[in-house]
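INFO  loader      accepted 1 record
INFO  loader      residues=301
INFO  predictor   begin
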Amino acid sequence: MEQLVECIPNFSEGRRPAVIEAIAAVVVRTPGVRLLGVQSDTSHNRCVLTFVGSPEAVKGAALAATRRAVALIDMNQHHGEHPRVGAVDVIPFVPLAGVRMEDCVAIARALGREIWTELRVPVFFYAEAATQPERQRLATIRKGEYEGLPTKLADPAWVPDVGNPSPHPTAGVTVVGARQPLIAYNVNLITEDVEIARKVARAVRASSGGLEHVQAIGVRNARGSAQVSVNLLDFTKTPLARVFEFIQREATQYGVEIADSEIVGLVPLAAIADVARSALRLAGFGREQILEARLMDLDEP
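INFO  predictor   done
INFO  writer      dumping tokens
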């Protein structure tokens, strides 16, 4: 079976197309890697690349992209709505085929060592690659953001997993990990009041007693409207439609409606099938009833 790993690095640049293109270009040039998508957001001031390939090829592409981003992004000039700790904010590896989670953990840790050795950017490991329980959650590592790194890293409890306890002068730190697929999902509200989005986010996220497997923050989007930005960690346990319905119900309590929603990056087909099943109340509907999915199955050896 072919070994296939997905990598979805997030970079702290969403406003300079030339920089985004330069980072994507080094991924495209990496043998054995397919770039599946590039998505950027000017309000968040970050971009997300999605690429797949063999474990070694994907690790090589991630290092090349990191090298380019560190050369082109100065965090001292960076401002955006989304929390971040470095020029290369986070690099997750996801097992797709013929690869175990343990393999992705090994890739993440090897890449972290290479980033420090070559670029002198300190690295934290998170999710399945975390070395300490309190570092499993990305939000915990990001707390204090880039501006708070000198103080945070001076705390013995927050010495980086790899590298010295001081941030790179322009690139900050990088967080590398291994995880299951997640869905990055934004819900835009018909209001400019970001505080409402923050209240809705607080209600929906798991850490505040909301829906399990949901992380959420309230921010302002590129249109100037309030947005609930969600990471859905396990759509098989908490379906996407349930997240939308919960946010809709909470927003209504403040007299606010939803303008639209958007998926950042790629999404598993099964998650969209779940939405169709919920919205249309389809009984017994499954992947095997989706034409394109069946065609893909026929193409497999």
